[in-house]
């Protein structure tokens, strides 16, 4: 019996959403599922094609970055995931993709303004874009420092990672998270669509002020507020 | 025997066009089918994934917004649908999506000019875009007032909802309608394509005057006029 | 025995390429196959969905625009096809679509310059765009005069319809033709791709001079010249 | 027994990636697989549709451009492939496509700057774009001189074809290569995605300086450096 089976399954299912939703080509992308009680995560192995991926390939890691179980090397981005699990309370899934429009905003080093309710349904703030990682940080430990860069961006701008479950790393691409691996990859797909809509809006109008705050808040609260009435409860 | 079976089936089939035609991701979109004689509508339940949707999940509502039959909560946009059924004569289907190009025009708060015959085949006027909903209206009853906003836009501009079966709600997205649920979702797909074509045209030319009125009228009349000769009659 | 069976099959197969290659939504598009010896054409019936289309639905027409065989009404664009068969020598197929990028260029009323070898492989000239049809012509006989407008555009600019098997009708969309129905719909797919490539190129560079004439000619001759060496001969 | 069977299979499999990954319409594209020891290559036959393509159709050629085995004519671009095999050490696969965004950059005659890690993961330099081929070279031997043009571009700019496994031929489109036929078509898909991301980034920002050199180098080294740690080794 594999004591990590259900965690591996959760990670596997979420990883398979990446090719299904066309969020990355080839092996570019990874999702992890986190078990906060046992303080372990299951993550995609590095460089394995989605078509060949099996549940048992998922690599189980602890929060020190040591392998707990698995034959393969974990995703090269594992340390970034670990920093997010360590610092952001309540999250249990992290996703990294190279989805096209999100990468374009990250390459343009622009935060994505709240232009409509599709964005506000998921997040009341602009999607932040970090600075480029510094050379010093990169040389220290690139993947860990990428996690630290995300955390520093949220802290310096006083952003709440529960309200804004996504970020663009400048020159690189998106990281998203959520209460489960499935939620984190859902946020990756949402982010890509928000980025595409915002891109098109910017071409249609060079005078974008963004959605009034009362509409933003209303849409967020419909889905996520104390009196939320979207969905089946 | 379910006395609402055929209405539910009509709503279900039309809702399933949303993922088939890629008019929204996940659960973002809803179609209702209206029985004017019985003054009831069948609508998608809120937040249920299309892959899991069943005919019996469709929620039957009356025009007061009360549930007539069904186990699930109706779409959170139900009140908007009800306003349109109450005010616009002859319509029997309403669709709301977050299709990408239609949302981009709604976010840019621009009406879509009549640039070609693809547009004129379906509608002789620009697709109107509302103002942002006011804070007062939003606080009163957001979804009902979204319906009222659409109605007010048509009245103040003296537009005929039978001739223009579609609207963009500023900062939000498209609502479309028609003589059946199927027609309303057809109009949602048409609108998305018109919005994409108009977007591309605007990039290709910054001097868009639009199609001459006599061509617009001719194309509309070929399909919808008293002497229409398009299709099989 | 249906004496028009093979002509109908040719038309049917070519029509089915329209949805397969995403050249039009719903019923917006039509292909005809022409038998020059019998002076008859088989064309898609008007307003019939591609999923429901059968070989036997194809309508057989003569060059006077009279129905020779078939139960359904022919495409409302039939007269445009007939003009092209009457005037352009050697063609045996005509296609009309509303493909997105070709429509955008037609709506912008711009000819498509020869920017690369993808274009030159098929045609050595810019793809012409007509003027808007005049009100007088439209009132006389819209579809026939659309054919006349295409012919007049080619004559006034001294273009050879065999070398340029495609045109954009201003504010409307593309018509393409060829030595068979299959070739005409091939040209419709080629045109859409050329239009997309030219659109993107225009965004990347505002100083497009176009491919030098000697490269244009070489690529065309590789495929279509007296000493062509592309393909299997 | 076919002594070229495995080489043909390698070429066939790589060619079939072109339609699977939508890198070209119809027959526009070709991949070859090279056996450096025997100094022969297997290449797609000219003008044969991918749906009809069989392993045994692959044409075996030597480095003089003479057919070694096969019934069909080889791709008209065969001489370009041969030049690259002759001059670039270590490569064993070449791919040519007409993928949309790569062609747009080639038509705009622009090199693609390194804007993000998706690019840097594969190549540390801008993707070079050649000059237009000269009329003299074209008249001498178009396909061979296209190969020479690529080689001259790399030499004059002192570029290493192992580090930059891709090029845009001005007004034409992309050629890519790699240590196998599969790698070369992988690079064709990567190039298309890089070109799309760079296109979108350019629209979002008119002040693109590009990724700092230390990030570029780090990403390349993660995958390709002496201490690479991406993937399973």
Automatic annotation (TrEMBL), chains A, B, C, D:
Keyword vocabulary terms for this entry: Carbohydrate metabolism, Isomerase, Metal-binding, Zinc
Enzyme Commission number, as recorded: 5.1.3.4
Listed GO biological process terms: pentose catabolic process
Catalytic activities: L-ribulose 5-phosphate = D-xylulose 5-phosphate
Signal sequence annotation: none
Family note: Belongs to the aldolase class II family. AraD/FucA subfamily.
Cited Gene3D superfamilies: Class II aldolase/adducin N-terminal domain
Protein name per the record: L-ribulose-5-phosphate 4-epimerase
TM ranges: none
Any single Gene Ontology cellular-component annotation: cytosol
Record bears the keyword Isomerase: yes
Provenance organism: Gracilinema caldarium (strain ATCC 51460 / DSM 7334 / H1)
Domain Class II aldolase/adducin N-terminal: 9-199
SMART domains (alphabetical): Aldolase_II (SM01007)
Keyword Metal-binding: yes
Enzyme type, top EC level: isomerase
Origin: domain of life: Bacteria
Molecular function via GO: aldehyde-lyase activity; L-ribulose-phosphate 4-epimerase activity; metal ion binding
Annotated Pfam families: Aldolase_II
Cofactor(s) needed: Zn(2+)
């Amino acid at each position: 019996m594999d004591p990590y089976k259900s965690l591996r399954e959760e990670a596997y299912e979420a990883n398979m959403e990446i090719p299904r939703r066309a969020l990355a080509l080839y092996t570019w992308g990874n999702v992890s599922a986190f078990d906060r009680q046992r303080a372990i995560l299951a993550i995609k192995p590095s460089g394995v094609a989605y078509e060949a991926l099996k549940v048992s390939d998922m690599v189980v890691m602890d929060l020190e970055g040591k392998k707990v179980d698995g034959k393969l090397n974990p995703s090269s981005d594992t340390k970034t995931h670990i920093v997010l699990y360590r610092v952001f309370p309540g999250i249990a899934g992290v996703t990294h993709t190279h989805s096209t429009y999100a990468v374009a905003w990250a390459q343009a080093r622009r935060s994505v303004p709240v232009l409509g309710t599709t964005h506000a349904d998921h997040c009341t703030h602009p999607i932040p874009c970090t600075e480029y990682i510094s050379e010093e940080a990169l040389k220290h430990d690139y993947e860990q420092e990428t996690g630290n860069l995300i955390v520093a961006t949220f802290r310096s701008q006083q952003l709440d990672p529960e309200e804004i479950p996504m970020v663009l790393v400048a020159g690189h691409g998106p990281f998203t998270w959520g209460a489960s691996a499935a939620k984190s990859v859902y946020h990756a797909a949402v982010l890509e669509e928000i980025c595409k809509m915002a891109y098109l809006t910017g071409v249609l109008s060079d005078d974008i002020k963004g959605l009034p705050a009362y509409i933003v808040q209303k849409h967020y609260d419909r889905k996520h507020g104390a009196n939320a009435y979207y969905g089946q409860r």
